[in-house]
Design brief:
Blueprint (H helix, E strand, L loop, with lengths): L7 H10 L6 H22 L28 E8 L10 E5 L26 H8 L3 E6 L33 H8 L5 E5 L6 H7 L2 E4 L20 E5 L2 H11 L29 E5 L10 H16 L3 E5 L7 H19 L13 H7 L11 H17 L2 H21 L4 E5 L15 H9 L7 H5 L3 E9 L2 E8 L5 H14 L9
Parallel strand pairs: 2-3, 2-4, 7-8, 7-9
Antiparallel strand pairs: 1-3, 4-6, 5-6, 5-10, 9-11, 10-11
Helix pairs in contact: 8-10, 8-11
């Protein structure tokens, strides 16, 4: 892809675009000055992309038939066997379809990216394979991961295994559905507004969003670097701790990874809840669309902790009600700039860029009508704010994140973990074919009031099942100090073992 010397007409248009008033003579002078720079670009074009090498062979793979895709959760099946030994030996995996797996198609839920095949494995794919894991294929996700419901994938909705016709949650919809259905042992999800924890709540799985940067995001299509997280979706707390132990740690390629502190998370398992201090955040139960049965089951979960010997207090964090507004500005403006205008990767960060993905994603500009309603409304609002206010609200939100962090940290100075409903409601019905834009968007964003703050602050948070109502799971969320995933796992495992969701007692 050689770079050509700009023409006089092209440079005149660019000058006008930039608000410059140049005479024809001045344009010609500037064009002459650009000749060495164009040469440098062409020298750059002759060099390689400096991408990681692929270590493990894989089958060509195929798109599964309807008969073997009962919940419409699989996008593509391709078996990849890792090392012959390791912590994950024999464990089977579904990979969210925004994660690069070399040689396996990736569409990230969007028809505009369909046909793209990455040439690299994400860091976490290599770590799973190095630990003996077996990848079974790619799981459907929501269109460019912009929905908390499971109805925006270009190829159709993912179905909740617990109740046909109901949402599996998003955006890691296929990952949670496949784990809940028992089709794989473990899965990967990503989380920018709750997309690991939301489908885990709807599907009854264990979803861990670790501290921002703990798990490298290298080789995964970004949304917004300051809220990008990747992590485990599993059937049990023990499996979650095991998988995070494999995934966590710096890879030298992800600039999100600052001051990383890892631990042997499996060593937190099997410890009693006695002595833990748990703060039940009352604001987490006060969302406008909170369902009483959801609140009741989560409070019942808090009572079980008390029965197990934990100190459980109701506390107030007023900033929790304001935190979603802070996150919203980052999501609207940041994602519009990085994921869309920046072709996923944007500028101004020292990470691993994937030019092939950037080139493939560039096609959305000619096919924007195919984007989901949830992404369209985000982009329309984001672009309006960028045009009208030039990113000032994004900047203010990023500054206010520090105040939000301080509010949660003040509570966590007195408590080991915070507790609240993962989501204010149970899984909703999937929108029908004649659903309005308003209904489609409502089903995509109605549930994220409790989850999105911790994407902005980076605190670790887990969703675990605390019961069922009307045949649908209810999630309870535990939030911990930065880098203290071990305490979250201690609490979550103690709860799981004492509840009717313990392995061996599962419904």
């Amino acid at each position: 892809m050689s770079v050509k010397q700009p023409t006089h007409e092209e440079m005149a248009d660019i000058a006008e675009q930039l608000g410059m008033h140049l005479s024809p003579t001045q344009i010609e002078e500037y064009l002459a000055l650009m000749v060495p720079t164009v040469g440098a670009y062409n020298l750059l074009d002759q060099m390689g992309d400096e991408l990681p090498r692929v270590k493990y062979p894989r089958t060509p793979g195929y798109m599964p038939s309807a008969e073997e895709n009962r919940y419409k959760a699989w996008y593509y099946k391709s078996e990849i066997r890792g090392a012959k030994s390791g912590k994950l030996k024999g464990k089977t995996f579904a990979i969210k379809d925004n994660v690069c797996v070399a040689g396996v198609p990736m569409m990230n839920g969007s028809s505009t990216l369909q046909g793209y095949v990455p040439e690299i494995d994400a860091t976490i794919i290599e770590r799973i394979l190095d630990a003996g894991g077996v990848i079974m294929g790619k799981a459907h996700c929501e269109l460019f991961c912009f929905s908390g419901g499971s109805h925006t994938n270009s190829m159709g909705a993912v179905i909740n295994p617990h109740k046909p016709g109901y949402s599996a949650g998003g955006s890691s919809s296929g990952s949670a559905a496949l784990v809940a259905a028992g089709e794989v042992d473990m899965a990967l999800g990503s989380d920018q507004g709750g997309s690991i924890r939301m489908p885990s709540s709807y599907c009854g799985t264990v979803g861990m969003k670790a501290t921002h940067g703990l798990v490298p995001y290298t080789g995964i299509m970004p949304i917004e670097a300051t809220v990008d997280h990747i992590g485990p979706i599993t059937a049990t707390v023990a499996d979650s701790a095991l998988l995070l132990e494999v995934l966590a740690g710096a890879d030298g390629l992800d600039p999100r990874q600052i001051g990383i502190k890892t631990a042997k998370y499996t060593e937190a398992l099997g410890h009693k809840a006695k002595g833990l201090k748990i703060g039940v955040v009352k604001e987490g139960f006060m969302l406008p669309n909170a369902e009483s049965d959801v609140n009741d089951l989560v409070l019942k979960g808090a009572a079980l902790f008390k029965k197990l010997g934990a100190k459980v207090d109701e506390i107030s964090i007023p900033m929790h009600t304001l935190a979603p507004a802070v996150w919203s500005a980052i999501a609207h403006e940041g994602a519009t700039m990085q994921m869309m205008h920046g072709n996923g990767f944007g500028f101004n960060w020292k990470g691993l860029y994937l030019p092939s993905l950037m080139k493939a994603h560039d096609g959305w500009r000619e096919r924007a009508d195919e984007l989901s309603e949830t992404l369209k409304v985000t982009m329309l609002m984001g672009q309006y704010m960028l045009n009208k206010h030039r990113g000032l609200h994004y900047a203010k939100a990023q500054n206010l994140v520090r105040r939000v962090i301080a509010a949660y940290d003040a509570a966590l100075a007195n408590y080991d973990v915070l507790l609240m409903p993962t989501l204010p409601l149970k899984a909703t019905r999937l929108p029908g074919p004649d659903a309005s834009i308003s209904d489609i968007v409502a089903r995509g964003f109605e549930m994220l009031g409790n989850t999105c703050p911790f994407d902005a602050t980076g605190h670790p948070a887990i969703s675990i099942n605390c019961g069922f109502s009307d045949g649908l799971p209810v999630g309870m969320m535990l939030i911990g100090k930065h880098w203290d995933e071990s305490t979250i796992y201690r609490a979550a495992h103690a709860f799981e073992q004492a509840s009717d969701r313990a392995p061996g007692k599962r419904k």
